[in-house]
């Protein structure tokens, strides 16, 4: 199952950069540079997460957009260059799943997206994994947990191999064993389980 993300960012270069990064890492991403474009996209399809800048140089800012137009159960992650207390307090009213300050690391973005979606699914509609009675019986080795943590950060098999100083073939074997043990169908389910089990 594909993960659909809506990016609302008025700086087109930043929006394109985020979209490219997400698509490179296996996500489906739609880009809007104004609230009007974002509203049209929300009317046409559903999204697993909204990634929105707060200051949109528009009559509607990202916080108002999230309050008025984002479906209640869709997690929101705010992006902003401003970290003043007033902005943070206003953003809190929307109860966003995360708040990323620009500039942010691409790995941090992926981890935030994955955890936000996993937490949202677990909170609203627990996955078959989290409600599975055999959930308690699932155990991973220390090395497998290391691999899961790096997967959650959006690392590729080659990057995981480099970080853990093992071969890509060994990483592939670990990934296969993790899927067999957890019976997760995708990365989001795996991260939801990892959150539930305290691996992340």
From TrEMBL:
Residues 133-198 form the HTH luxR-type domain. It comes from the Bacteria. CDD domains: LuxR_C_like. The modification 4-aspartylphosphate is found at residue 53. It holds the Pfam family Response_reg. InterPro entries: CheY-like_superfamily (IPR011006), Sig_transdc_resp-reg_C-effctor (IPR016032), Sig_transdc_resp-reg_receiver (IPR001789), Tscrpt_reg_LuxR_C (IPR000792), WalR-like (IPR039420), WH-like_DNA-bd_sf (IPR036388). Coiled coil: none annotated. Keywords: DNA-binding, Phosphoprotein. Residues 4-117 form the Response regulatory domain. This is Response regulator transcription factor. It comes from Sphingobacterium chuzhouense. The lineage of its organism: Bacteria, Pseudomonadati, Bacteroidota, Sphingobacteriia, Sphingobacteriales.
């Amino acid at each position: 199952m594909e993960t659909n993300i809506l990016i609302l960012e008025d700086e087109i270069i930043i929006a394109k950069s985020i979209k490219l990064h997400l698509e490179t890492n296996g996500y489906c991403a739609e880009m809007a540079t104004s609230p009007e474009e974002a509203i049209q996209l929300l009317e046409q399809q559903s999204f697993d997460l909204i990634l929105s800048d707060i200051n949109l140089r528009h009559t509607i800012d990202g916080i108002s957009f999230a309050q008025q137009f984002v479906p209640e159960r869709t997690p929101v992650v705010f992006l902003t260059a401003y970290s003043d207390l007033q902005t943070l307090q206003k953003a809190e009213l929307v109860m966003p799943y995360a708040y990323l300050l620009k500039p942010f690391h691409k790995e941090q973005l992926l981890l935030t997206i994955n955890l936000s979606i996993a937490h949202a699914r677990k909170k609203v509609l627990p996955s078959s994994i989290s409600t599975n009675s055999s959930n308690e019986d699932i155990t991973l080795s220390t090395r497998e947990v290391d691999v899961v943590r790096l997967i959650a950060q959006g690392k590729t098999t080659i990057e995981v191999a480099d970080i853990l100083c093992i071969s890509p073939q060994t990483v592939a074997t670990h990934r296969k064993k993790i899927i067999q043990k957890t019976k997760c169908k995708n990365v989001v389910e795996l991260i939801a389980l990892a959150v539930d089990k305290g691996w992340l």
